[in-house]
Amino acid sequence: MFAIIDIETCGQKFRHPQGRIIDIAILIHDGLQVVERFSTLINPGCYISGFYSNLSGITNDMVADAPHFHQVAKKIVELTEGKIFVAHNVGFDYSFIKEEFAFLGYNFRREKLCTVKLSRKLLPKRISYSLGHLCASLNIPIVNRHRALGDAEATAILFDLLLQLKSQSPTYKSMGIDEIMATRLDKIKDYVLKKLPEECGVYYFLDKEGKIIYIGKSTNIYNRAMSHFNSHERKGKRMLNELYNAEHELTGSELIALLLEAEEIKKHKPHFNRAQKADIFTHSINWFEDKQGIINFKIEPYDETGTYLQAFTSYIAARERLELWADEYSLCLKYCGLSDDEVCFNYQIKKCRGICAGIESKDEYNKRAGKLVNEYSFGKQNFMVVDKGRRPDEQSLILIEDGHYAGYGYFDSSTQMQNPAELKEVIKHTTYYADHDTIVRSYLKSKSLRKILL
Description:
Elements: E1 2-9, E2 21-29, E3 34-41, H1 50-56, H2 60-63, H3 69-80, E4 84-87, H4 90-103, E5 112-114, H5 115-122, H6 131-137, H7 148-168, H8 177-181, H9 184-195, E6 201-206, E7 212-218, H10 221-229, H11 234-242, E8 245-250, H12 254-268, E9 283-289, E10 295-301, E11 310-312, H13 315-328, H14 345-348, H15 362-376, E12 383-388, E13 394-401, E14 404-412, H16 420-424, E15 428-429, H17 435-446, E16 450-453
Parallel strand pairs: 1-4, 4-5
Antiparallel strand pairs: 1-2, 2-3, 6-7, 6-8, 9-10, 9-11, 12-13, 12-16, 13-14, 14-15
């Protein structure tokens, strides 16, 4: 069974409040003929601009008393349930309807069939495959062009013709419609997306030999994977040409997904991951108070046991970051180890406030420098961060030990287990990389999560 669908909208992409469906038609086709029809105008709850009114003939007055999408949503679900979603350029109609449902909190998923793609197979070498041009060349009448019912009726006639051509074709008559339309990428896309959930975690793309070629993370793995297939980047297309399978690991917590992604990229070094591959850190930015009690910063060889603020894979990267901090916090180059001059150059150009020239007090300078230290350092702290779990009755823990990320774990939140020693037992210790600390600090700056001190 097929659901032949057409919509009219007041925008090219779904956006709330602008860019909504204003007209929808659904024709139920049993493979031989249309057996049921449904159509209605829809009040989008927003203004329809003159451009879209001129295109479809639908005005704001016409939709004023029409139902809103949520009022016909149940009918759309019932009509399309268990049927293949058919449309001319199906990506447009399907994505709009899916987004309308997503806005209501419902996950709308149907198998799709595009009459544009099917026409390219069964009606090759046409000048244009737009609905208007195809119908004109095939003498298919379109009543009320750019109205949902008129375009859906024309699409249904075109679909009947395509089914007839398929049955007469020596090449395609023994094939299913999905086989005719599907490219290797279509099949892989369908296979991969069916395996991936709309939940938070890390996903892995694998090649024909089962080798990991890309690792990513998302709060919605399905949607993120879908975005790869919609990408027009050359490198992205090369990756999809090598893609054969996918796996995933749910984390619940976005922070754990970020940490796991970084660790797994370093471990597997997938070909199509650009960032986070480096697993050797050569330099770090450390801080200390000198004999006068002034906070100093210094680039030093990396020591993973030290209390560094941030670690880097090269001296150049460390220097660029320290120079950026000097500008951002009005630090003195002399006390950043970036100048041997008694009075630093930044003071001369009024970027340093004069600690090196005896103009600014130690307390004032340390207030800004201390703010930097606090933002980029855990010191020697020991604590656990409590975050979301993979299920409603579960929570996650991220352990910071001696000022560094140490691992993560999960516990059943219904057990009321609050003893820090017991909670620490669920922690899975992971391979430590210096950028893990940066990931945790950055995340905690943007999110308010509960901490358990140890």
